[in-house]
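# nightly structure sweep
# worker-07 picked up a monomer target from the shared queue
# config: single-sequence mode, recycle default, output format = structure tokens
# input follows
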Amino acid sequence: MTRNPDAKPAQQPVVDGNSAILRRFPFDDTRDLDDARRGFMGTATETVIRDADGSTVWDLGAYGFLTGDCPGTANPSLWRQSRLSAAHGLFEVVEGIYQIRGFDLSNMTVVEGERGVLVIDPLISAQTAAAALALYREHRGDRPVTGVLYTHSHVDHFGGVRGVVSDEDIAGGVPVIAPRGFLVHAVSENVYAGTAMARRAAYMYGAALPKGERGQIGAGLGQTTSTGSVGLIPPTLDVTRTGQTETVDGIRMVFQMTPGTEAPAELNIHFPDHAALCMAENATHNLHNLLTLRGAEVRDPREWARYLTEAVDLFGDSTDVAFASHHWPVWGRERAVEFLTEQRDVYAYLHDQTLRMLNLGHTPLEIAEAMELPPALERAWHTHGYYGSVSHNTKAVYQRYLGWFDGNPAHLWEHPPVGSAERYVAFMGGADEVLRRARESFAAGDFRWVVQVVNHVVFADPDNTEARELQADALEQLGYGSENGTWRNFYLTGARELRHGPVGTPTTTAAPDLLRALTLDQLFDALAVRVDGPRSWDADICVRWNVKDQDPVGMRLRNGVLTHVTGTGPASCEPDVEVTLDEDALRELLLGETPVTDLVEQGRAKADGDLAKVDELLGHLGEPDPGFAIVTP
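# output follows
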């Protein structure tokens, strides 16, 4: 356990609230504990996984403290979930299917074929994936990887691929299978808004927090994110339809396409020879996110529920075990169907009841406060909000249908945070008076109100040490009481940054492999969102790229907008300069790796016109800030 000397003890209202959780839910139900242990074959003797520089990428022993009794500084339900999720090692799902769990945020699944193994979802980092495969081989033999399968387009399901296969393996015929649209969504999510998502993910997963009873204890879906090398090998075989069957190394698979559920591109897999159903991340032992706190497109709970019904219809009669890319399996046909059905019901209920209430005129905050799950669903541990939550999922449904505006014109044109804060503090009698009253609220245990009101003082005067300390203390208490792992991490990371400054972004997802996987269209679009618009209002620059074996592309910066047009038709522009080069050289240039003048001097590019216009155009691009402020202005 990592010491966290700045952390304060839990206040009595939090201790009392956490104690009440023990009386409210069936902690004597040990089925999950039995399932999480079932099939255990062993774990790694070296508990620390390092990169080539010796830096720690993952520590298997970091959560050993969870074997103890739950302290007052943690919600007992989240403590239980984290203890189950932290269990690490190689586990047999059924004969021929194995999972390595606890080596990253996600699981890696290994299916044995005739000659080697199919690896499903190779974690986030090459280092953790390699360690996971090594553990499998230690117990099952040195079998080659004869196939890779990505269940969906999130980085924790493909980022470690270079730890299990190489480009040479793929060139030699090892297939990489993924759902249709995988590559587009995998790279766009991590590039277009990647900087903001990664910064917020630092809060969501709490990777920079000390591990311990007053710090990070998990993220609900898994423990946290590894911090090693992220890679991507593009798919060589697309799954395009439900019912599609593929056989890899003798392993028969039947696919169900589930786009727009937990990811824009996702699929489930049935293994008929094993009576086993892989649910990817569509059914795990928690309520999932309809809108993840790191940011993403809002997911469709109605379609999510429909696909879960379809999974039961397609595979329920031929499934003896359901497993996923997070958490532990569910064994037994009846239990698996019940699990999938309850998962279906929770998403359908949140969708339908949010719509019912918004059609009665309720606002997102009102719906979130009023929404309760039916008792039968609340009693099921796997519907608890360890990762998603009833509160922020209902707001996501509202956003999906009605957007950010709640209809009240008072909220249509509010002052931005700093301007509002300054006015609020002035209205409330100044910072000293706000803090005096806030301390009274803190003593009364009203921590939600403390963080709401003291936030105004912090934004009106970020150098106010008393305000920052009180805000940190109140956020900490909210974290201690939270059942949701990501809420706890947000609260505690906010407290840490108020006390010590920004933690940055421990995990980088915009890795070289992802940038290389961008199509040229995506790369041009990614550059467009980096244009400093106001600084570029008066610029009018046109560059034509004559890319070998492709149609020319005209790139124009005008009115602060960077557009690109393929071909030389009416929508194209009259170029200030034409640059002839191959695609690799263009990518190096646009990614800032090699200046255009160097390419010309090296004979890798030819220019016709004013070559300085290229640098002028690229000079209008700004750099994103991976450490932007969140709890301060």
